[in-house]
Design brief:
The chain has about 600 residues and is α/β, with parallel strands linked by helices. The protein is built from 13 helices and 21 strands.
């Protein structure tokens, strides 16, 4: 499909490995070529170690040297054979399009910055079909990749992703069967196996799918997973998403929208829609005027796109903006062959924590956008530049950021693409298999903010926190009682040190107890008020301690030396001035009126 429509290939030859995989791919290509009007000029099969034979290698080299300029080469081999064949084609002086089938590079890491599997000189006009592409990966893949790197210390590949998806689907099916077993009573092993099989079969469309690493996982009527055959293009030795992809659509969607599927490519019972890939990214310039209680920040940033065909940035919907944002004219607009580069300057107020929800001691500054009208089977956002030279232009326009975040700091920066499913009200449906919902490709950029500082929960389990809170409160009450019942002249210095330590433990444990136990119970308004009260106490407890220290080590010794009593007016004036300083501190640093 991609070769005929996107690459405009009319003639091709195939070189395949002589096993079930190679023969299966060759058969599928021959069958599809007949239906799409492409001519297969020749098909060559090689053994697993045939390329070690000089005679075989010489014969294949002769075949490549005779290639006509408009003939593409399709390789259905494994990784090391594909590497060798690509090198042979390019060394023969041919620049014909080369398309490699899925297993040719699936064992290589997905991250675009891994060591090139092919010399950059050989990657011109080189394309590959694969089960998964790194730059299309969503948030779940980012989390999977992070955990994979921590454990195995190398990048995951397409096999790792599909294996993880299989495990996720199996575990989810077992979980649901186990939950039913607890309500339906004991069942035999045979019944449980049948229940697991039935549960797996119920994942039959987008609406009844399992959220996997690569996206929604479900099966067709033959029990095969419904997966897009993604096409990547090599640039600089790396594999990136091609600007045009083709997705098969479920029958359930076609029955609701028959008009959309008229005159669309149709192969082996599946209808394909052409999807435009738009490479995109965000360069943040400034973040300021953040109101964490109202969960609003003013953002200024550059937005850029690389695309082929028609794409109108004015039709973007910034889903977490406070007001409708109207994108003006492009600051920069360039044409590079079949692709266009556009950069826009955007400024507006955006909601915090839009997708992350309410989390303790954390905020997320995010920019989330999708197309208003084009669903995800018509337009797909992809992070990054697709490996093209305009990446240098993108880097050139990166400037120093101005972040006014108060007492918060950026703990993590991330960007990913996901699918936004929403109710269809006069909109097109897309890859959901439902007449009531639409799916849109959504790009997400975010800063995760955290408050710097020491946390008790970093060194103790949360179950110990109530004990620390109770013991510090009880110890502090006994200590304060002792201050007022005993002669101040007899109070030892360690008591004041203990007062300071218990005060810190009380305020710290109270604050973290609220975040861990009352965060989901209290309304945001009362939660902020309670946190403001505890923040104010960090100013007033030192006033109490400092007043007692002045009494013990200034006023009382001064009275003993002079034989005269210090007037209460002087004592209360000093206490009042310390209190005023604390109030000013609360106003400036707790309420933010600096």
């Amino acid at each position: 499909m991609h070769m005929a429509n996107a690459l405009k290939i009319e003639k091709l030859i195939t070189v395949s490995i002589d096993d079930k995989y190679g023969e299966g791919v060759k058969k599928a290509i021959t069958s599809a070529s007949d239906k799409l009007g492409m001519e297969v000029l020749s098909s060559t099969s090689i053994g697993f170690d045939s390329l070690d034979d000089p005679l075989v290698k010489s014969g294949i080299s002769s075949l490549f040297k005779k290639l006509e300029k408009d003939t593409a080469v399709v390789l259905a081999t494994y990784d090391w054979q594909a590497n060798t064949l690509i090198e042979m084609i390019r060394k023969s002086g041919q620049v014909n399009p080369i398309i490699v089938a899925g297993d040719s590079f699936a064992s290589y890491p997905l991250k675009p910055n891994f060591k090139p599997v092919i010399k950059s000189d050989y990657t011109y006009n080189l394309f590959g079909s694969t089960q998964f592409l790194y730059d299309i990966g969503g948030k779940k893949f980012s989390e999977f990749r992070k955990g994979y790197l921590n454990k195995f210390e190398h990048e995951p590949n397409a096999y790792d992703v599909t294996a993880a998806d299989a495990a996720i689907v199996a575990i989810e099916a077992l979980r649901k069967v186990t939950a039913k077993k607890s309500t339906d009573g004991d069942k035999s092993i045979k019944d449980i196996r049948q229940a697991v099989r039935d549960q797996l079969a119920s994942y039959s469309d987008y609406q009844n799918s399992v959220d996997g690493i690569s996206g929604p996982v479900y099966f067709d009527q033959h029990g095969d997973p419904v997966q897009a055959v993604l096409i990547g293009q090599f640039a600089g030795g790396q594999l990136y998403s091609h600007p045009i992809q083709y997705y098969s659509t479920p029958q359930s969607q076609q029955q609701y929208e028959t008009s959309r599927f008229n005159n669309k490519p149709h192969i082996d019972g599946q209808t394909f829609l052409e999807t435009q890939v738009v490479y995109t990214g965000v360069n943040v310039k400034s973040v300021f005027d953040c109101d964490y209680e109202a969960k609003v920040c003013l953002l200024e940033f550059d937005l850029w796109f690389r695309h082929s065909g028609s794409f109108d940035a004015r039709e973007l919907d910034f889903v977490n903006s406070i007001d409708q944002i109207a994108i003006g004219k492009a600051v920069i607009k360039l044409n590079e062959g079949d692709l266009n580069y556009e950069r826009y300057h955007v400024k507006g107020k955006f909601r915090l924590d839009y997708l992350s929800g309410k989390k303790a001691n954390q905020h997320v500054v995010g920019i989330h956008y999708q197309h208003r009208f084009l669903s995800n089977d018509e337009l797909l956002f992809v992070k990054g530049s697709g490996g093209q030279s305009n990446q240098a232009l993108i880097q050139q326009h990166r400037q120093k950021m101005h972040l006014q975040l108060g007492d918060w700091r950026v703990a993590e920066q991330g960007e990913y693409v996901d699918t936004a499913v929403q109710q269809s009200i006069g909109m097109r449906k897309a890859r959901t298999g439902s007449k009531d919902s639409s799916a849109f490709s959504r790009f997400n950029f975010n800063y995760k903010l955290e408050r710097p500082g020491f946390s008790l929960l970093a060194v103790i389990p949360s179950s110990v926190l109530p004990w620390i809170l109770g013991i510090s409160a009880l110890g502090l009450s006994f200590l304060v009682r002792g201050f007022f019942t005993n002669d101040f002249r007899t109070i030892k210095p360690w008591r004041f040190v203990l007062f300071a330590v218990l005060s810190i433990l009380l305020l710290k444990s109270a604050s973290e107890y609220i975040l861990t136990n009352l965060f989901d119970v209290l309304d945001d308004y009362y939660l902020y008020r309670l946190n403001e009260f505890l923040a104010a106490m960090w100013w007033f407890f030192p006033v109490i301690l400092l007043s007692m220290l002045i009494e013990r080590y200034v006023w009382l010794p001064l009275e003993e030396r002079t034989g005269r009593k210090i007037p209460n007016l002087v004592r209360w004036t000093i206490f009042f001035l310390l209190g005023v300083l604390a109030v000013f501190g609360v106003i400036a640093f707790v309420f933010g009126y600096q």
